[in-house]
Amino acid sequence: MKTHRLLPIAATAALACMAANAPAQDKTPTANDSNTPLHLLKPAYRTGYGVADAADVKRVIDRVLGYISQNTPAYVVDSRTGKPVDDLDKIDSHSRLAQGAFRLTSYEWGVTYSAVQAAYHATGDKAYRDYAYDRMGLLAKAAPRFKAAAKGGAVADRLMRRVLDPGSLDDCGAICSAMIKARLDGADLPLDSLIANYFNFIANKEHRLADGTFARLRPYRNSVWLDDMFMGIPAVAFMGRYDKANSAAHYDEAVKQVRQFADRMFVKEKGLFRHGWVEGMADHPAYHWGRANGWALLTLCEVLDALPENHEGRAEVLGLLQAHVRGLAACQGKDGFWHQLLDRNDSYEETSATAIYVYCMAHAINKGWIDAMTYGPAVMLGWHAVASAVNESGQVEGVCVGTGMGFDPSFYYYRPVNVFAAHGYGPVIWAGAEMISLLKGQHPYSNDSAVLFYRTKQNTSAPIFGEK
């Protein structure tokens, strides 16, 4: 005879209570291949996906413009009182440029001056043009007065010293290009003497290798920095349009510099540039730093913008740009960013490089240099990444601080990021401006959940659309 163990009366009562209060069972069938079009399930994108809206793009760069406008005052102060010097004729040895979070005379701000001028052309919003003209105009008007106040000695304001007596390509190349662009646009600003002063350093004072390639004396003698493609070459190329009497010589020099940098630094099998090259090294380490590759690609865009269509070196520069774009596109990360070291995805995602690539690739598409169908989706994804890095205050996050030349991975992996790294602000505005132009002139659509670019406008009301 079997016996049964009986639950205590209290436990039996508890089970009965739990059964009475249990939630009703969800009898909805689980989504499966038979009852649900699984390909339409919404992915959990981290930085956004889809075709961007031009108005949203402008709102992002407007926030950035608002932030930098508040943090780059455009006036002179008396260093003893902190009060503005309203009459520039009264500049004396105690006068200084008002200080904000960012310097008005750095190469990073040369990039910003070019970017806001591009944003004006893309949007028609005069706030962008005025931002550049107000600050470049202040530098141009104040410079001779600071020089006169020094009475032959050192200019008291360290920032104005870099304007009047530049000591490196960093001091003059990017800002010279931006000033030339303003004058080519017809800006009624007294920029010519500063352009001449800056260009004199680039052409006659910058250290060079024996074949004329821009070089530095650090970290080793005759070091070639990829950064210096941008710090020097675009100014030479745009000087061809500005100094028409010597156009051919300027254009030829720009192409020569591109060729000589590429011969030393472009790694063809990867489609990427190494950051540094040192004369006398038997082997040249190839660390493919993100932002330096950005400066290289931006240089190629600038040179192509400046060169005449019939210049004999144009095809060579264009071919290099196309090869570089192919290499870069293969390195883009899953969330749209490119990495600090491009071919090492365990290095951090970096915003300034990403923004430069978005601008350059979008610009190359808009100019017809590369195919929108091939590269448009990567550009769109990259813009979503860039937009996600702009916080509500208009600060750009995830930007690597200034970086010298290194020969080991740790140096690049652990460079800090900071919202006051000035390198991110111009590229973000430039990228947004070019995205607005791309959205106006190209034909991106979401088709079967993917971003695709078409040659012509599509009938998106059809269940399935696309070119026949």
Please explain how this structure is put together:
A two-stranded antiparallel sheet has the order 1-2. Strands 3-6 form a two-stranded antiparallel sheet. A two-stranded antiparallel sheet has the order 4-5. Strand 9 (about 445) and strand 10 form a beta hairpin. It starts with 8 loop residues before the first helix and ends in a 14-residue tail after the last strand. The protein is globular. Helix 6 (about 170-185) crosses helix 7 (about 190-205), helix 10 (about 290-305) runs parallel beside helix 12 and helix 13 (about 370-390) crosses helix 15. It has helices at about 10-20, 55-70, 105-125, 125-150, 160-165, 170-185, 190-205, 225-240, 245-265, 290-305, 315-330, 350-365, 370-390, 410-415, 425-440, and strands spanning about 75-80, 95, 225, 265, 270-275, 275-280, 340, 350, 445, 450-455. Helix content is about 50%, strand content about 5%. It is mostly helical. It is built from 15 helices and ten strands. The longest helix has 25 residues, at about 125-150.
Short key terms for the protein model shown above:
mainly alpha, two-stranded antiparallel sheet, 6% strand
Task: Give the ordered list of helices and strands.
Answer: HHEEHHHHHEHHEEEHHEEHHHHEE
Radius of gyration from CA coordinates: 28 Å
Strand order of the largest sheet: 1-2
The coarse overall form would be: globular
The parts where pLDDT drops under 50 for at least 5 residues are 1-19
Summed up, the helix count is 15
| Alpha-beta content class | mainly alpha
Percent of residues in β-strands: 5-15%
- Total strands: 10
Mean pLDDT, all residues: 94
Largest sheet: 2 strands, antiparallel
